[in-house]
Fold this protein.
Amino acid sequence: VQLQASGGGLVQPGDSPRLSCTVSGRAIRNGAIAWFRQAPGKEREFVAGILWSGRNRYHSDSVKGRFTISRDNTDNTVWLQMNSLKLEDTAVYYCAGRDSTRIATRSDEYVYWGQGTQVTVSS
């Protein structure tokens, strides 16, 4: 399984960029995809997760109401719509996958990782 994250860049506070995670190789039919982020000097943090079936999703308290994770059933893509960005959302954003029908929030429970995409929020 290969994951590739894209869509990051330099944005302003309040902007609404969208990140994408493209999954290739073996399909994660009974698994979950999650977004994590890591800011300089901080631990990797769970942002949001979704079952590959799309039947369940979960967002961390820090992004709930601002970010939305979704899955496109027409192709193997998971999206992270980010709205009302704040300076503290600056981080490298990673997508990760696991072969389990449970959305885990610990990074060590995910075995497939993309390369990360930098999101910098600056005025």
